[in-house]
Amino acid sequence: MNVKALQERANLYRQIRSFFYQRDVMEIDAPALSTSAISDVHIESVGAQTVMGERYLHTSPEFYLKRCLVAGSGDIYSLGSVFRDEEEGHQHRIEFTMLEWYRLGLTLEGLMNEVAELIESVLAIRATEFISYSQAFERWAGIDVVNASAAELKLAYYDLGGAEVMGVEEDDRALWEQLILTEHVEPRLGQDRMTFLTHFPARQAALAKVKNGWAQRFELYINGVELANGYDELQDENEHRRRFELDQQERAKLGRIQRPLDEAFLNSLEQGLPECCGVALGVDRLLMLKMKAQHISEVRD
Amino acid sequence: MASIKTSDFKNGLKFMLDGDPCSIVDNTVVKPGKGQAFNRVKYRNLMTGRVLEKTFKSGDSVEGADVTDINLEYLYSDGEFWNFMDPESFEQYAAEHSAIADAEKFLVEQDVCTVTLWNGSPIAVTPPNFVELEITETDPGLKGDTAGTGGKPATVTTGAVVQVPLFVQIGETIKIDTRTGEYVSRVK
User: Fold this and answer.
1) Minimal-distance CA residue of chain A relative to B18
2) Which of A135, A148, A181, A249 is most buried, judged by most C-beta within 10 A?
3) Residue A166 and residue B28: Cβ atoms within 8 Å?
4) Which residue of B has its CA nearest to A86?
């Protein structure tokens, strides 16, 4: 057990809580155990057996926090453990710490600035940079990501020196695009600065609004590490159901389990989710950057 | 052999790739928050010794390789095979030259070597970290040079050539670090 890491974590939590206290953002203790799960194609919930039947550990406090917003909570945040099965590695733990917050009065730009303020107070990094998803592909991979075919993306991936890939179909456009992002673009982002990647393709909207064909979404990178993911939050109930349904179909295609959807969350949307922006930030990774750790196990038991 | 899922990948795991047994040197999970996970794997091809990199889609499987390391005593070579024996079971193993490779010049009879077996046959031999060998050939050094500031090549009984200090002479036994091929000391 690394006592230094425990102290750093305690200090960071104190800093985060004081940051939000000063901004009048209320802390929410979101329940970790739920009767429903999420539909994300590439996120696996951890199941739990209880006397009340099958339950799931939350993969993020998102749905509960949005129900709070519908109920009229105003600005809120949550800091605590979330769980994603099958995710273990240098930067991944099945149980990890997530800071997630929602702001009613902020635009997506305003929220990015607030994220930058929080990071600056923790890491003493000031420089920020904003680059769109397609600009980043153009600059670091020399490819027009919007119009490139699967074959062109695959060629670019290998031309840039990517290691041989096993198990990806020739025509799997989405995966070749993702491989260029993770192997060739992401490592260049956030070199001694905060790089906000913005304007994601609409098909990667998740639960962000789509405007003019672009998902109103950002990701923050520091030293090549994906640190935060923020949305101008989707409000429309039917659009939520449509996207969940598409996710479930994709999961079925890939032979993955379809878990029960959060009907309490979906029903709450009928009453109207207020216009808001929200972001989730990986606290263990922030701590890794602070402590210059190479492996998540150095900052979390 | 059983198939191995990417979630079971770890350093030292032996698996088959393109017909050759390989050993994982480094396994990194690459997964964007919302994206498909991949395993970026550095591995050593145990037949060639080369370290290569491949990216596997997480959830896929590879075939396991029946590869084990055992300690065997080196017996002798007949020029075609290099023969080893398990000092406990007395079972003998014959290795071809491709398995011996660079280890040949440091094989000393009765030394215990680490032998890598694939499906029961030797594919690689690692000599002990230190071996003691007698010098059969070297130029006479300068008298009085005991500091070992200079150096000269010396050939030992196995044919290996190592740089030794000037004061070391033919007929003397020296200790060699087999990992670097460097002279360590004289053996009295």
Assistant:
1) A166
2) A181
3) no
4) B7
Fold of A3-124+236-298: BirA Bifunctional Protein; domain 2 (3.30.930)
Confidence of residue A87 (pLDDT cuts 50, 70, 90): confident
Q: Which residues of A touch B57 (CB under 8 A)?
A: 165-168, 175
Q: Touching check for A54 and chain B: CB below 8 Å?
A: no
- pLDDT (tens digit per residue) in A148-168: 999 999 999 999 999 999 999
> Has residue A129 got a pLDDT over 70?
yes
Residue B117: both structure tokens together:
């077996």
ipTM: 0.84
B29, A88 contact by CB (below 8 A): yes
CB contact under 8 A, B31 and A165: no
- Please indicate if any CB of chain B lies within 8 Å of the CB of A94: no
Look-up: residue for tokens 């917003």? A69
